[in-house]
């Protein structure tokens, strides 16, 4: 099922207020909008969600205080930026109770804390798995830094 709009957001920040209003208004205007109602778990297969992102004409990224603290949001954002680079999607950032200047450094506090936590968690884990996780964290850092620059320059 193809959507006109995919909405990426941090559930605990905006699910019960802003996203609900936005979704209803988009639908009222005749736009088919995807909102993650199921609250997917991070372990769930991302294939279906990524396919929806790829097939959407527009993506609205609601950047809130806790957006970058979610693995799920960072994985979505990585896919969204890939689609934007391939001109598959037009991306509209919405700053929800966060200053655009803060987005430039979106990754710093969260990823530093995540890396320290990751290193202690991964003690005794095989090198291959550890390398995959490290690569994912590096991708997140790169994509959030790039997103901050792209988004703040587009204002």
Question: Describe it for me?
Answer:
- It is an enzyme of class 3 (hydrolase).
- This protein has 155 residues and is of the alpha/beta class.
- 56% of the residues lie in helices and 12% in strands.
- The protein is built from six helices and four strands.
- It has helices at 11-28, 47-55, 71-85, 100-103, 108-121, 127-153, and strands at 5-8, 33-34, 58-63, 90-95.
- A four-stranded parallel sheet has the order 2-1-3-4, sandwiched between helices.
CATH architectural category:
3-Layer(aba) Sandwich
Helicity range: 55-70%
DSSP, total strands: 4
Give the assembly state of these chains: single chain
Strands ordered across the widest β-sheet: 2-1-3-4
Q: How many helical elements? A: 6
Briefly say what this structure is:
With 155 residues, the chain is of the alpha/beta class.
Which helices and strands occur, and which strands form pairs?
Layout: E1 5-8, H1 11-28, E2 33-34, H2 47-55, E3 58-63, H3 71-85, E4 90-95, H4 100-103, H5 108-121, H6 127-153
Parallel strand pairs: 1-2, 1-3, 3-4
Helix pairs in contact: 2-3, 3-6, 5-6
